Amino acid sequence: MTKTSNIYYPINKIEKTFINYIWRLSDFDLHSRKELILPKGTVEIIFNFSDKIIYFNPSLQTKKELPTVFINGINFKPFELIKTGRQEFLGVQLNVIGLRLLFNISPKELNNVVCNGNNICSQLENIANELFLKKEFGQQVQIILQWINERLYPHRMEDSISRAQKLMNCSHEEDLTVKKISHEICISDRQLRRFSQDWLGMNTEEFILYSKYLNSLHLLGHSKENLTEIGLRAGYYDQSHFIREFRSYTNMTPGQYRDAHILYPGHILLEG
User: Fold this and answer.
1) Based on the domain organization, do 138 and 166 belong to the same domain?
2) Quick check: is 265 in a domain?
3) How far is CA 214 from CA 83, 112, 207, in A?
4) Is residue 7 assigned to a domain?
């Protein structure tokens, strides 16, 4: 088995607004393998130059072969990828406001969805062809960044972008409440609910719960604290609350996640 990976982190202010990073992963294994991917709070545009890759969402009972380019929206339940042979992915990981900035659509439209990228933007097929012809990761990154800069809509929605960034930054605060966020963003509870659904794909209460889960997922992968301490740091009032909420997003307990064969944060290699 051979595996290589590359990663590019954004360097200018506009890129940092909505791009987490651009990545490439190459892997080859003749044996069939199954990967479980937990909700990570991100959106990804992925160019797929692999052999056959099957996407399976157990919660929705959806199973399909991944197309050459696809967009993975915000997930609230885990899904599986079944792989055999060559795996060649090139991806752009966005924060949740990236869908609005690049395609002028609400993230809510793609919640729990993996869709053909050409159904969202017809340019993506041409971009995929260009990327396939370039073998150097740096050249591929430049093609993606050029396309992104041509697509951006930030000049039309500067106030909303600033408000969305403030909202996302609230996710790291302790004892987060709707009232606290509303005060921070300077809009009413009702306006905040509509704004949160339109820009983050979830209402304010869902955003608070999801933020706690994401914080706990990060701590499980980066902290040596015990599960009780992690739960409290993530904002859960006791261990049973932590376990219940974590399981609602992942179908497993925090302890089971820690004991799993973790390939990357939120990515688990399954047996068989």
Assistant:
1) no
2) no
3) 26, 16, 10
4) yes
